[in-house]
Amino acid sequence: MLHRGAPMARVIVVVPCYNEAARLPRGAFDGYDLPEHELSFLFVNDGSTDGTAALLASMVEAKPERYAMVELERNSGKAEAVRQGMRRARADGAELVAFWDADLATPLAELAAFIAHMEEDAARLVVMGARVRLLGRHIERHFYRHVYGRAFATAVSRMLALPIYDSQCGAKLFRAGEELDFALAEPFLSRWIFDVEILARLVVCTADATPDLSQRIYEVPLTLWRDVAGSKVRATDALRAVRQLAQIGLKYQAALSVRHRRSGP
Ligand SMILES: Nc1nc2c(ncn2[C@@H]2O[C@H](COP(=O)(O)OP(=O)(O)O)[C@@H](O)[C@H]2O)c(=O)[nH]1
Ligand SMILES: [Mg+2]
Fold first, then answer.
1. Is the CB of 77 under 6 A from ligand 1?
2. Does residue 129 have its Cβ closer than 6 Å to ligand 1?
3. Burial class (CB in 10 A: 0-12, 13-18, 19+), 170
4. Which of 128, 137, 140, 182 is 20 to 30 Å from 166 at the Cα level?
5. Which CATH superfamily, name and number, covers 10-263?
6. What is the pLDDT of residues 178-207, one digit of tens each?
7. What's the 190 CA to ligand 2 centre distance in angstroms?
């Protein structure tokens, strides 16, 4: 609850962009507002070879108080683009930092609910979108991606001993603080499943903290989500993700096994 006279919390939404000139819905970005927060967007142009740089530059020029851009010289992948963007957002004084896919597969309208869930509990560290097909919602996911996503999230959930429904939704919100800084300190080992590595790092740095991490991450069932055409994720990435999940499990094995011992079978 916002008290009158309280300064508005600063929210920065990091948007990784690789060749998004044709997909980035400029009007939707221009039209979204959060009246009770200070909202801005930080686009990370990840070495795009299409008109992305020009599009983002014209958005920044039109609304410099609302948009900023980071340029990575070479294409480094979504994970590194998000990491660089979130570190910059943190340095720019964000209190809440989100990352959000440029195609707005998750509409920006969902962000307000993410923030409300973050603000209702001061211990909360992460609020993430979950693509759950419930009656009355519009979750349009390709069948095979849905099935793969469910199997993958189940594996993640077992590996981290956290009951996660959807680890890979491209809309997540984080509370700025030492836990987030720890999670962003080093490059990720995967280009795509860095979401899992962020969670694994949070397991490491909150191992002895209370409440337990399972109570500090909140999944929001989205009301609207659709697979936007033009995805850059290929079938080979899905196979690679399984190998990378195993690598993440190995890298953070010590903290994960303590967590497994504590949480029982
Ligand atoms: N920085 C960066 N972002 C990427 C890259 N590939 C995809 N993205 C971004 O990641 C987000 C999701 O990409 P998308 O292809 O829609 O993946 P999908 O929704 O999982 O099928 C978008 O914001 C893309 O611009 C990449 O190589 N580098
Ligand atoms: Mg997409």
1. yes
2. no
3. buried
4. 182
5. Spore Coat Polysaccharide Biosynthesis Protein SpsA; Chain A (3.90.550.10)
6. 999 999 999 999 988 999 999 999 999 999
7. 18
